[in-house]
From TrEMBL:
One matching Pfam family: Methyltransf_5
UniProt record, GO biological process: rRNA base methylation
SUPFAM superfamilies: Putative methyltransferase TM0872, insert domain, S-adenosyl-L-methionine-dependent methyltransferases
E.C. numbers: 2.1.1.199
One GO location term (cellular component): cytoplasm
Name recorded for this polypeptide: 16S rRNA (Cytosine(1402)-N(4))-methyltransferase
């Protein structure tokens, strides 16, 4: 995985310059391709003193790309695999090791799916590019979108579409999914998109509905 495959984060200069005020430990809880972390490390170098950057991401591909991008900083950057919700557990051994004696001075979170994940068909995040129905932020995680679409009961799917996608026609789409999978499993993003399009009321925009479902 090449770090150049990742886009440059928007407003990275403004965000990081406001965050870095003094030496210490800074945490990038959504590491991605390392764009924000690179800016943070450069600012910390300019600031002087003893500092450490801790980057966290659950995506092994992102960690690989970020490691390439940040390799010039060596031990000044510690990259960890996990979700930012686990920051306390992940940080404890770091603070007993390279971060010992340093205070945590800042935490950065850039929430959402990265453009790299959306633009990579094999990750299965986009209805615009056909690929396996995956959608795992952690590519080694046990549960895929295909598992949910093919195994969840209609009521559970309806709740999922309504609660997390705010899709008013979640029940209608859930019924269509359950009906479609009686013919055969739904295994690709294109197959699911077609089911959603057919279930979408004519007066509604299928693109907006697909965006909410995905």
């Amino acid at each position: 995985m090449d770090y150049q495959d990742y886009h440059e984060p928007v407003l990275a200069d403004a965000t990081t310059s406001l965050l870095v005020t003094r030496p210490g430990v800074y945490i990038d809880g959504t590491l991605g391709g390392g764009g924000h972390s690179l800016k943070l490390l450069r600012l910390l170098d300019e600031l002087g003193g003893e500092s450490l950057l801790v980057g966290i991401d659950q995506d092994s591909h992102a960690l690989e790309a970020a490691a390439q991008k940040l390799r010039e900083f060596g031990g000044k950057a510690v990259l960890l695999r996990g979700n930012f919700s686990m920051v306390r557990e992940l940080l404890l051994p770091v603070m007993r090791g390279p971060g010992e004696g340093k205070a945590v001075m800042g935490l950065l979170l850039d929430l959402g799916v990265s453009s790299f994940q959306i633009d990579t068909p094999v990750r299965g995040f986009s209805y615009l590019r056909n690929g396996p129905l995956d959608m795992r932020m952690d590519p080694d995680g046990p549960l895929t979108a295909a598992d949910i679409v093919n195994d969840y009961e209609e009521q559970a799917l309806s709740r999922l579409f309504f609660r997390y996608g705010e899709e008013a026609h979640g029940g209608r789409i859930a019924r269509a999914v359950v009906s479609a999978r009686t013919v055969g499993p739904i295994t690709t993003t294109g197959e699911l998109a077609e089911v959603v399009r057919r279930a979408c009321p004519r007066k509604d925009s299928p693109i907006k509905t697909l965006s909410r479902i995905y």
